[in-house]
Design goal:
GO cellular component, one term (chains A, B, C, D): cytosol
Strand order of the largest sheet of chain A: 1-2-3-7-4
Number of strands of chain A: 18
Mean pLDDT of chain A: 93
Largest interface: A-B, 111 and 111 residues
Protein name (chains A, B, C, D): Chorismate synthase
Shape of chain A: globular
Keywords (chains A, B, C, D): Amino-acid biosynthesis, Aromatic amino acid biosynthesis, FAD, Flavoprotein, FMN, Lyase, NADP
Cofactor (chains A, B, C, D): FMNH2
Order of helices and strands of chain A: EEEHEEEEHHEEHEHEHEEEEEEEHH
Oligomer: homotetramer
Family (chains A, B, C, D): Belongs to the chorismate synthase family.
Chain lengths: 363, 363, 363, 363
């Protein structure tokens, strides 16, 4: 299949550009009988929505989603779920100036060379605008996973140079950064305010965790759970790195240190991040994402135009000085989509093993 | 499809366990007319082969591959290429002791819970033994890519705590570590010798680079080139992290620092690692992998058996104290497979754009 | 992937029920640079549209399609094309009566057993209503194929007991049946009028032909061109049989009779229907479809309800007495989708062979 | 994926040419814990094997299969099953004469144009020789389906002009034709003997039936069970038509005649062939295949060579005068593969519905 469908049994297909009439998605393979309403999707859409604090783009998008199919009398029918979000606050004229330029670190250059034409309005398809549909689809996956006791949550673990230690989930939703340490919030606020004065942007690190995942999810050797998670998370705009569990820290670890020993009470540590041999172990699934700084900044930069002439580029328009700030719900969504897809695949092949086990028993 | 096939147009399907009779692969979608012989595959197989230095497992496997189909009169026919490697040096009795145990940090636990049964001999399917077929398939991709001027190479950039700066490609093949700094080799040797005395293992970091990649490869939004690379590289045994370009360093970077500016001579830097918006930019594709320390060590560890009883586990058998040492050819193979798959996909959809361009012109 | 996506490189994903708010489709992999407007899609949608003659359902649906993405300044961008058609003339109350019944020969019974729940309004997802989106997607494929000189057309070759010999393409669009023999139309009209009086329905046979298809399309051994055509055509509601070329007549043929001999002027016959060994030969691709009689008829029939109680069913609502009458544009669409998907796949793998050939030269 | 893999969850990938060293297959997604031995595969391989009567090719191939992986201690492990069959009786020199010719009705012409090169020995990949691996893979699917009470069987329903009425399954395996009417066998023998004297070939019709299939298999709207069956069966060499249930007879049927009415005892007829709306109904799945006459005959025919020069072709070598005679086990295999793939997909998405039902209860 082409590049805009993700998943094997639970599949998400999306379309839509930043400044086109609408975003659309088709979510296929959702099990039937799940209670589902617009409200279930809207909650996460609102968490990702722009313009909710002074630290994100001021573009105003209500991101109201319409369910077009697949739900009847309040429950999923097993048929594909069509989703629609109209774009309402496009200001395409902001972009006519960069029509023939390649903004540094943007996809302008590669889209131009790949397709020969490009929708330059707000980055077109390459804009993070499309992630709204990932969040809507992910909310469906989260809702189903919740019926099995699986919970997917994320937080910001680093903003630029500021590392953020995890204190508790309580505060995460109470600030604009999904910061798990309330005491750090003022420092983050101050950093962002200075960043805007500097007309610059910065990167961030996000951590996503799934709890209650049953053992057995993952299809070695290529469709390992961690490999599909890496695929899903790296497919998010601006992501440049993905770690599972100890990640790059594993490089300097010794085997005696890294291996998670087992007792009758369970594992004594989780360097594996909940995945062994590409299959979930029953421990929490832990992933970290590195997001690069926003490419759209008003500080002039060197580039060329479509004719190869050197130009100085200043990116106007309304942009997030740190795309990482709104990335947490997107990362949660992609992890949830991968987990549900693998749950369905696992049930299909291994129902014989699963019958009578808690995993299927819970269903 | 199930989990043992990778790719869309250039697909690699493999089967085979560590101590079964043989490894087998079917490589489908290779363009016709490519000169191909066993020697083309054997070179990389020998680079990955065990027992070539005292720093890797002493299992002796010639890893001689047989081409069963898809090649006629020395050239590929466009039909699927069947590959066979017989296992010759299994010592399965080494493993009967751990038949009912879950070795810490191994896939024993997850395979047992997923499938209900497991081939415990040498880890069965979860053993890195299967990577021999990735290397064989990757060699075919490399050969074809070479006809387009694309070259995929890798090296070790860190061994445990020892960081290795890149000096030159010259020395990489002259040492057991794929170390790009000859001066560092003695230090690596000494470290590994001590590690064995400590009956411990350690992690490593590998860097893979593809040069000569034309712009345009990658299928947003989900099948981005970097996302498929992350999938491919994370699917390699023991890999816990993947970075593209600046990777996790992007987190602390500012936009003015990260963005790769353009002049009429080309890009001034490569923080992007050759991928913008999920599509190749024409710059070198740069990826880094984190490999965890080998799980099989002779230092006793705590675990449980299939009945949940606590046991002390000592992993005998012949193992690599650092799986990263033989990982470079595997990482190269997976990157080559991804690049060829995306080249074919790109040509299919965008032939209109490509006609008359160097990319297709070279063909 | 799940069951609502068709194709590998040119993919069509659809959603939407007969009486839901809308039908939606995402067409992915369309080459960039193709001139495309709503008018290109509307023409075929109007050919399939209900209520255009007294011989089809009287449901009034304008079937006006909206392009939501993938087209910029009148040309495709290579990004996914989102399509939306609002349902306007649902009369769901017609269906409350059959809420708990299984209408004979309908999908009620199987949807109930598969999903546990079902949208009973007008057959929900199982209604031929969804074929509107196949036609819209097919129109895009047709438009691109036309730029290569490929033309896909169909006609009715049999209505119930009345066989229709092909006279010419001229009259096909001038009657409600897509009948290629104007002299036969009055007989068809009379037959249909009597059928309505009998409160019965009847089957039909449709023939679809693609001319100008270059040799080389098809991916043996499983994704043969004829196998994918069979898949695509059999996936159309009510289709019970598919033939390529001589089809079932081949059974009684001798090899000396069936084989299409070749001269320097080309093939002397086309029993193969344009496909040899699963690959297009350059001759016209010829396929025949058998459509069963409409299941929804007002003559009472025996059935059971969800509790297993025996009931007599009379299907009210507005239905086509012969679903085959509107099937020609649907069959054309599915053939066009398969041909474009295979063209892209073929170009991807075999660009080396194609460079400098008319096939790619035309692009 | 490319064209040599079939299925989504239960996938079969094959490689190998008629006169290459071997045939190979990788069967992925087979549920774990299934008792499986070479004997289970050999039985069906022997039913398809050439040279067992004077009515098939005299090529002698023992078709002995080796299981390379995926089975441990007599049971499947859930890991991919590698299969190998060595070719032993190639007589490639028979073919050098047709090296530069296109045999009428053969794939020579299309392979030449698609790939630019071709393995002309015995048709290379386009030979029905590859179907041996379909039969081996199908035997695995049959074995698993049998544990659920599903049985897949086939027979010859027509040989050339001779229609064969079904009498009983008893005699089917007792004759060389899989003829279900013992009284007809002498007539078939006489017809085939005359056919050889005429140096000609003939077509055949095969019927395949699956009994005990639970309701619910099939993934509308594109991956309907009947659509995937059509794909699978049309992908068999020489097949030109596929019917489900009443098939082309539906065209002349009235709705009152075609619809299968239901009582509390079940369906009163099976015009649907066990599939309603693309989903199995619990009735027997019935499919019919039309196979064209063998293209390889010794009666001279007109053709051209690779230079376009007209030539007269006489096809030597050893061939089946009716490929349909050995097609029954192949058709059974493909139907079994489709059914198992859909069973796994159905279980994956609909486990909630299935828990506690006979379908999953039996597992």
């Amino acid at each position: 299949m082409s590049g805009n469908t993700f998943g094997k049994l639970f599949t998400v297909t999306t379309a839509g550009e930043s400044h086109g009439p609408a975003l659309v998605a088709i979510v296929d393979g959702c099990p039937p009988g799940l209670e589902l309403s617009v409200a279930d999707l809207q909650r996460d859409l609102d968490r990702r929505k722009p313009g909710t604090s002074r630290h994100t783009t001021q573009r105003q998008e209500p991101d109201e989603v319409e369910i077009l199919s697949g739900v009847f009398e309040g429950r999923t029918t097993g048929c594909p779920i069509g989703l629609l979000i109209r774009n309402t606050d496009q200001k395409s004229k902001d972009y006519s100036a960069i029509k023939d330029l390649f903004r540094p670190a943007h996809a302008d250059y590669t889209y131009h060379h790949k397709y020969g034409v490009r929708d330059y309005r707000g980055g077109g398809r390459s804009s993070a605008r499309e992630t709204a549909m990932r969040v809507a689809a992910g909310a469906i996956a989260k809702k189903y996973l919740a019926t099995l006791g699986v919970r997917v949550r994320g937080y910001m673990s680093q903003l630029g140079p500021i590392e953020i230690g995890f204190q508790s989930w309580d505060g995460v939703e109470q600030n604009a950064f999904f910061c798990p340490d309330p005491a750090k919030v003022p420092e983050l606020e101050a950093y962002m305010d200075q960043l805007r004065r500097d007309q610059d942007s910065v990167g961030a690190k996000i951590t996503v965790i799934a709890e209650g995942v049953p053992p057995g999810l993952g299809e070695p050797i290529f469709d390992r759970l961690d490999a599909d998670l890496a695929h899903a998370l790296m497919s998010i705009n601006a992501v440049k790195g993905v770690e599972i569990g100890a990640g790059f820290a594993s490089v300097a670890q010794r085997g005696t240190e890294h291996r998670d020993e087992l007792t009758s009470e369970g594992f004594l540590s989780n360097n594996a991040g909940g995945v062994l041999g590409g299959i979930s172990s029953g421990q929490p699934i832990v992933a970290h994402l590195a997001l690069k700084p926003t490419s759209s900044i008003t500080t002039p930069g060197r580039s060329i135009d479509v004719e190869g002439r050197e130009v100085e580029v200043v990116t106007k328009g309304r942009h997030d000085p740190c795309v990482g700030i709104r990335a947490t719900p997107i990362a949660e969504a992609m992890m949830a989509i991968v987990l549900l897809d693998h749950l369905l695949r696992h049930r299909g092949q291994n129902a014989d093993v699963l019958v009578g086990t808690p995993v299927l028993g819970q269903l």
